[in-house]
Amino acid sequence: MRLVLEPRQEPSRSAGLLSPLLAVAATLLLGFVLFSALDKDPWQALQVFFVQPVATEYGVGELLLKAGPLMLCAIGLAIGYRANVWNIGAEGQLTIGGIAAGGLALVFTDSPAPWLLPAMIVAGALGGMAWAAIPAWLRTRFNANEILTSLMLVYVATYLLSFLVHGPWRDPEGFNFPQSKMFAENALLPNIFPGTRLNAGFLVALAAVATGWLFMARSLAGFQMRVAGLAPAAADYAGISTRRTVWLSMLAGGLCAGIAGMNEAAGPLGQLQPTLSPGYGFAAIIVAFVGRLHAVGILLASLLMSLLYLGGEAAQVTLALPAAVTGLFQGTLLFFLLAADVFIHYRVRMIRSTSGFTVPEA
Amino acid sequence: MDHVAGLLVLTLAAGTPLVYAALGELIVEKAGVLNLGVEGMMLVGAVAAFIMAARTGNAWLGILAGMAGGAALAAVFAVLTLSLLANQVAAGLALSLFGIGLSAFVGLPYVNVVIDGIRPITIAGISDLPYIGKLLFGHNPLVYLSIAQFAAVHWFLYGTRAGLIVRAVGESPQSAHAIGYPVIRIRYLAVLFGGACAGLAGAYLAVAYTPLWAEGMTAGRGWIALALVVFATWKPWRVVAGAYLFGGLTLAQFQAQASGAAIAPQLLSMLPYLATVIVLALISRDAVMIRQNAPASLGKPYHPEH
């Protein structure tokens, strides 16, 4: 008797929706085993990880605060992934967006202009798009693989930010810390929920997710890009331009990631620091997949991923576990998801074989 | 002149992890599988090697642990993509993200630990010969091993029947299957070999090159190794040449600082990454050449039963 994978006639929709839930369940189970292996009470550990961070109003505010950049980056990436354009450099686009927006805030530190904040959002978006335009151009003009170029540019962006805050943009009164001056009041995203750190950036993120959904589900360009991803040959035949698909995919990703960078700089940080995000741009790749490249799914997955970040922090304080446990859970979640996704296109069938005779497959 | 020889020695040392990882990935891609998880496998190899070396005091055991760690992570990738037919791009990314997280997690207690790493071999008298002494006889044993790996990979791919079968599987798994070769099993072995090589590359960094453990210490070398395979248009000797070229670039920062150049270190640190982007674009520009040299089934899932 053996198990074989048998292709389904059509991809299963229910398996596609069930698979993230299976993956979450399997990740929790693994967490249980891991915590037990580390001599922590697993129930207490899971409670610290997944419940305690959101037990207070402040905690819920933190959950939404971290979910914002995750959903922003993920919705932008999802547009590209649907079209089979693999931008994995959102972290770099986020960084450049933060640099562009932060640069503007630093130029106008003494100006009370009310347009500064909107202008910073635009600057962040343009910065992210400019950074994403490089791999788009290299792909359309030189046929260079966007996975590798977009990833390489993450390192370049990180070093650029590090150079700026160690050098020209360093706060002269900052006791030699590598960070910029604090932004002025009018360059900070206003708080939207007193008692928490939640700011207007979250509303921007929600608006981006809604726009992303409209673009993917209701616009002609979004439809064409989905066709390009699902059936490249059909897309070619229908005259859908690959060049345009690549450009739109990369720019959408860069735009959203750039705004996320602005949100971080003008939100929780209030200045430029050598690191703007704890890997939101990479975690967003997982958010996009776990959210099934769909706006609603991304919304939910970004909350889950945000909880993993908070849980990691809580586990560090309460359980003396390294915060890196977050990265471990993130990676595991994606593994289990990919494994569970097999049921979308295949069903498992048991084949009983009696001596030398195998039941032929349907 | 001695300065040039010294620089060449350093270049070989800096290029060696790229040689290991890229030659491993070359075999994987020759078999038609694209594993983007090199960075993750390198990090897991590095941390496994370092922990083993710190615990046992034997850096060579660390090297073996690093190879095992890389191969173990590769096995996860193989199950996902070869048995469960998951998307290779997504699974490779998952591998890298997971490896980064896992290595940071298990490596944390070892961040400031000092170990006795594998040192360059010096042969009294011979290594002190002017010019060629250092160049030929002053390297780390793992540098020599990487050259042996190159010879072995080249010989395997172009001089053995098994290598021919691997290449056939990468060009057309359907035909290879029809002739009766176990495509999936061959691909499993290739992926595991690539994982062990990536693990060895990480182990070299952690117990020989630096030797220390730091979170994310591979600093993108896994991704550069992936790019190297493309630059090299899937030819082993060009992989090695590219690896040393990029190894040299990573030294530019230290060289410039040593000579007192007034360029910010962060800007010099960008060089290897910028160079990767530029060279990748230049090589890929010739789409026909890429198509002719890339294994035809690269990245495409294959299932023998349909």
What does this structure look like?
Chain A has 362 residues and is mostly helical. Chain A contains 14 helices and four strands. Chain A has a two-stranded antiparallel ribbon. In chain A, strand 3 and strand 4 form a beta hairpin. In chain A, 54% of the residues are buried. Chain B has helices spanning 2-30, 38-56, 59-83, 88-107, 132-137, 141-159, 161-171, 173-179, 183-209, 221-231, 236-258, 265-269, 271-284, 287-293. In chain B, helix 2 (38-56) packs across helix 10 (221-231). The chains are: A mainly alpha (362), B mainly alpha (306). At the A-B interface, strand 1, helix 5, helix 6, helix 11 and helix 13 of A face helix 3, helix 4, helix 10, helix 12 and helix 13 of B.
The tally of beta strands of chain B, per DSSP, is: 0
pLDDT average of chain A, as an integer?
A: 90
Share of helical residues of chain B:
over 70%
> Average pLDDT value of chain B?
89
Number of strands of chain A: 4
- Proportion of beta-strand residues of chain A: under 5%
Could you state the order of secondary-structure elements of chain A as H and E? EHHHHHHHHHHHHHHEEE
Structural class of chain B: mainly alpha
Q: What is the rounded Rg of chain A?
A: 22 Å
What oligomeric state do the depicted chains represent? heterodimer
Structural class, from secondary structure content of chain A?
mainly alpha
